[in-house]
């Protein structure tokens, strides 16, 4: 199982249900991997999810309507199939959602905070290692060891702007 799917299902530190709801609803809606939402989500979430992702609800509202983790959200058979690596769409998901099946042509800044539990800095570090071995012009920077996703926002934006200023000046 790839690191994104494993993170969403098993290690999202309180955000797993939110990420799973978004991820699996998107796959159901756009790719039709499953015949019915009841194949994906446990009741009552199979009926609730479409309304939560109607564009009228913010992240906090959606999170508060969901259970604490992915296991409580997903249909037990689906969760077990992912856990055991037997989900029929697993190979297709790996192929279609591998973030590293491209070579960046432009300079790339991977910036975040080591304190971020929403988007772990380890994801950026992994991408940095992969893209570096491909010979890409890639930089990795953490703006903080403690700040979470929201707290680090302004520092991340600042680093992004500075990165582009430097690249445009050279």
What do these coordinates show?
Strand 1 (108-112), helix 8 (121-133) and strand 2 (138-142) form a beta-alpha-beta unit. The protein has a two-stranded parallel sheet. It has helices at 3-10, 16-31, 45-52, 59-65, 70-73, 76-84, 90-96, 121-133, 153-169; strands at 108-112, 138-142. It folds into two domains: 3-96, Orthogonal Bundle (434 Repressor (Amino-terminal Domain)), CATH 1.10.260; 108-169. It contains nine helices and two strands; from the N terminus they run H-H-H-H-H-H-H-E-H-E-H. With 170 residues, the protein is mostly helical. Helix 1 crosses helix 2. This is Putative secreted protein.
Keywords:
single chain, mainly alpha, 434 Repressor (Amino-terminal Domain), two-stranded parallel sheet, 9 helices, globular, AB_hydrolase_fold
Beta-strand fraction estimate: 5-15%
How many DSSP H or I helices? 9
Q: What is the chain-wise order of helices and strands?
A: HHHHHHHEHEH
Which fold name is given in CATH as the topology of the largest domain? 434 Repressor (Amino-terminal Domain)
Q: Helical amount among residues, as a percent range?
A: 40-55%
Oligomer: single chain
Q: Can you identify the CATH class of the largest domain?
A: Mainly Alpha
Radius of gyration, CA atoms, in whole angstroms = 18 Å
Structure in a nutshell:
It comes from Legionella fallonii LLAP-10. This is Putative secreted protein. This protein is mainly alpha-helical and 170 residues long.
């Amino acid at each position: 199982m790839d690191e994104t799917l494993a993170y969403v299902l098993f290690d999202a530190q309180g955000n797993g249900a939110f990420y799973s709801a978004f991820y699996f609803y998107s796959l159901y809606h756009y790719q039709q991997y499953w015949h019915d939402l009841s194949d994906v989500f446990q009741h009552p979430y199979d009926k609730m999810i479409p309304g939560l992702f109607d564009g009228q609800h913010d992240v906090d509202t959606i999170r508060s309507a969901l259970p604490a983790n992915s296991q409580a959200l997903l249909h037990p058979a689906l969760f077990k199939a992912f856990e055991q690596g037997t989900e029929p769409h697993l190979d297709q998901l790996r192929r279609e959602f591998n973030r590293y099946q491209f070579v960046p042509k432009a300079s790339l800044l991977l910036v975040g905070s080591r304190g971020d539990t929403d988007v772990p800095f380890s994801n950026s570090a992994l991408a940095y290692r992969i893209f570096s071995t491909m010979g890409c012009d890639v930089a990795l920077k953490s703006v903080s060891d403690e700040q979470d996703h929201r707290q680090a926002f302004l520092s991340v934006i600042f680093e992004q702007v500075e990165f582009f200023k430097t690249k445009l000046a050279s």
